[in-house]
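USER:
Working in pairs, take the chain set out below, taking as long as you need, and write a paragraph about the fold.
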Amino acid sequence: MSSEKLRLAAIDLGTNSFHMVIVEECEEKGIVEIDRVKDMICIGRGSISTKKLDSLAMEEGVATLRNFIVLATQRDVAPHNIIAFATSAIREAENRDEFIEMVRRETGLKVRVITGKEEAQFIYYGVRNAVTLRDKPDLLFDIGGGSVEFIIADRSKVHLLESRKIGVARMLERFVRTDPVSARELKLLQQFFAAEMYGGAAEKARELGVHRAVASSGTAQNIARMIQSGKDSDSAEVLNQSGFTRQEFESFYRQVITMDAPARRRLTGLDEKRVDLIVPGLILFDTIFRVFGIREVIISDSALREGMVIHHIANIRGRDGGDNHDIRRQSVMELGYRCNWHKPHAEQVARLSLMLFDELQPLHNLKERYRELLEYAALLHNVGEFISISAHHKHSQYIIMNADLRGFSPTEIEIIGNVARYHRKQPPSEKHPLYSQLKPAHRRAVDVLSGILRISNGLERGHRQNVQSITARLEPGRIVLEALTRCEPDIELWAVESLKPWLEELLAKPIRFEARIQ
């Protein structure tokens, strides 16, 4: 099934910065990012106390929006598909109508000012499209310049939407006068944050037993990147669905909170323009950990803008923007379509792989979570042919590990990429850096899953979906795999003979194939 392509530009007029994302959407390939741009306008500078937008900031904002519209037009976005939402600073300014009219007059753009609850709803749409929510509720929070949005939600339901006026730019302007932050200012910020969080989301979180949080926004990503860089510089760029524990944060917090601006500026992973804003951001994070009793934070690289896009497209397509879906599977299938995969072949290899995983489970003893990763590796094992048939297994690994698959942790993506990498040619080797850097338990999983995938791929060598099912007889001295086929499996049995040795070595038993024509 296919649908007409739609191009859309979504502009977020935030307190600290204006952002625009340009996407193309169709039903098969999903939402593909075309371009992204950001300008640190700081439209809210000084407005927290004066309640008025600065005239120079308004002029800079209009100039930036004019450039955004030119870029969107050059990217073939129709004017009616350029949407713009304004948040906290503009929402609260007494002269907001003057600015919005100024934008409309000089750019033709109609800016919609959204409420705090609407902002939280859009953030929820964005986060749930990037991070796998669970059956039990999580706290979702997004740190803006003027406000922080709190959402409590699970995979099927939103329990609470809330917006509080405790954004980092607002707090920096109101409380911080010294560098490094003084003990008195730090205490005042902690007390103010805790008072603002009292009741509402914090009370609901305690009632529902929430212990995990999903954080979005630049502040959250900067903190995650800094913590990651201290642990593993190779993975510092992979943020979505990565995270850190309360203990890891507290250790980092104690080191950084006493630093002055020059020292903070030297920190790996900190955006130059957040050198001052990160101070209230860190104190806010510390307070959220304590007030909500959070044990772990997961990072989402999608939030308000992505939620705006999803909601707008859902309205155009006549769908429910909050409709529940399996983002992991959807993301895998979309990547397959983008790479012009041979879907019947990929699905047949995946089907056979799952059969083999189940039949051989008494021998490999891998947990259920690896079964899902095997299926996704099987579905994507041939996407590298999009680049070149030659060495396509290596290209498949590269594509998988750089495709921004949604809903997966960085480790899960590494496992999927490695399993796809070894579906043909050489088996896993310590000489290969992307394999050798895995933890021992994950290397063993890759070994077994790639061994299964190699055999499944061999059983589909003719790309004709000949093998209907496969069962295993686990005898004391060997493994007998019986394939039920539609026609003579000469090609399949020939191919699998050269692909079975790796799994035989892992399971320490020879594998014999028997075929029965249906």
